[in-house]
Amino acid sequence: MPESILVTGGAGYIGSHTVRLLASQGRKIVVLDNLVYGHEQAIVDESVTLMKGDVGDRALVERLFEEYRFTAVVHFAAYAYVGESVTDPLKYYRNNTAEPLVLLETMQKHGCKVFVFSSTCATYGVPDSIPIVETNPQRPINPYGRSKLMLEWVLADCGHAWGLRSACLRYFNASGSSADGLIGEDHDPETHLIPRVLMAVTGEIEYVEVFGTDYDTPDGTGVRDYIHVEDLAEAHALALDHLAAGGESLKVNLGTGVGVSVKEIIEAVEEITGNKVPVKYGPRRAGDPDKLIADPSQAKSLLGWEARRKDVRDMVRPAWAWANGPRKGRYDH
Ligand SMILES: NC(=O)c1ccc[n+]([C@@H]2O[C@H](COP(=O)([O-])OP(=O)(O)OC[C@H]3O[C@@H](n4cnc5c(N)ncnc54)[C@H](O)[C@@H]3O)[C@@H](O)[C@H]2O)c1
Ligand SMILES: O=c1ccn([C@@H]2O[C@H](COP(=O)(O)OP(=O)(O)O[C@H]3O[C@H](CO)[C@@H](O)[C@H](O)[C@H]3O)[C@@H](O)[C@H]2O)c(=O)[nH]1
C-alpha cells in the first residue's frame, strides 16, 4: 500500500513544489489548504486530492484521518509576513502555533507519529556566529519567528510524551521555481527580494527598494542564503523516508552555505534578463539581521541532503522563466 500523506499548505509556494515531487514518487497525497494564500492551480497532479479547509477545523481534520489513515503529516500551512506578525501577533500565534495543536491532537488520537515541519532560520534571530549551526541559540526577534519556535518545542514535547517523531526543517530563503515553468512563486502581496526585483524589470512595480546600505557586509547590503525550492522539496522526501524507516527526530538547516547580498541579486537579475533594474536605495527594514547563512552539513550527515544548486543565477533563471511564462508569474491571470 502506498504511503498516505497529509500535506497542509500544499497549495502554497514551497508546498506545491514538494507535493509534485512526493506525488511523482508514487505517494498518495492529500493537501489541506484554506487557499488564503495558496492557489488551486498550483496542484497539477491528478493523483493529488485538494481539500479546501483549515488546519484548525477539528471535524474536517478528523474526517480526513478517518478516511485516509495518514502515515505522516507534512506541515507547511502558516502565515509568513514578518512585518504583519509585529502589528498583529495574535493572528500569527493563532495560525502558526495554536491551530497546529488540533492537527497534533488528531495525530495522537489516530496513532500517526511522523511530522515534517516547515521551520525557519528566523528562529535564530540575530545570530552570534556565521555560518549558523543548529546549536546556535534560538532567539527570534519577531512574533513570526517565535510562533515557529514554539511549535518546534511542542513537537519535542510530543516526542517525549507519545513518541511523535518530527523533522524540523529550518529553511533559509526559498527561491526559484519548477524547472518546467508550470508552477512558481505567487504571493500576494509579494515581499520577497527576487520576485520583487523581477517585478521591477517587467514594470509591475516602478523600482525595487534596497533596504539598507550600511550593513556589516562586504557591499553594505543584506546577505541571505537563497535555496532553490526544488532542493527544499527533496529534503522533505528524504525526511519522510528517514522517519518512516524509524529514524529519530531531527532539526536541520536547509540552505546552500553561500551568502548572497541584495546588490549581487540585482546584478544576477541584470545579467539574466539583460535589463537594467530600476533601484531606489532606502533605509533598513525593521527586524532584518545583516546576514543569515546556513551551515548545511547536518542535513547532509543525517539525511544525505545537499543543495544541488548553489549559484544564485540558478534560482533567478527559473524565477524569470516563471515571470515570463504563460501565467506571467500569477496563477489567476
Ligand atoms: N518562503 C520562505 O522563504 C520561507 C522560509 C522559511 C520558512 N518558510 C515557511 O515555509 C512554509 C511555506 O512557505 P511559503 O513561502 O510556501 O508560503 P505560502 O503562503 O505560499 O504557503 C502557505 C500555505 O498555507 C496555507 N495556509 C495558511 N494557514 C493555513 C491554515 N490555517 N489552514 C490551511 N491552510 C493554511 C496558505 O493558503 C498557503 O497556501 C511556511 O510555514 C513558512 O513559514 C518559508
Ligand atoms: O524589496 C525588498 C525585499 C527584500 N530586501 C532585502 O532582501 C533580503 C531578503 O529579504 P526577503 O526576500 O524579504 O526574505 P527574508 O526577510 O530574509 O525572509 C524570508 O526568509 C525567511 C528565512 O530567511 C523566512 O522565515 C521568511 O518567511 C521569508 O520571508 C533582506 O536583506 C531584505 O532586507 C530588499 O532590500 N528589498
Automatic annotation (TrEMBL):
Domain NAD-dependent epimerase/dehydratase: 5-255
Keywords: Carbohydrate metabolism, Isomerase, NAD
InterPro entries: Epimerase_deHydtase, NAD(P)-bd_dom_sf, UDP_G4E
One annotated GO molecular function: UDP-glucose 4-epimerase activity
Keyword Phosphoprotein listed: no
A single GO BP: galactose metabolic process
Keyword match Zinc-finger: no
Pfam family, any one: Epimerase
Metabolic or biological pathway, per its Swiss-Prot or TrEMBL entry: Carbohydrate metabolism; galactose metabolism
UniProt cross-references to CDD domains, sorted A to Z: UDP_G4E_1_SDR_e
Cofactor(s) the protein requires to work: NAD(+)
EC number: 5.1.3.2
Catalysed transformations (reactions): UDP-alpha-D-glucose = UDP-alpha-D-galactose
Quaternary assembly: Homodimer.
Family, per entry: Belongs to the NAD(P)-dependent epimerase/dehydratase family.
Protein's UniProt name: UDP-glucose 4-epimerase
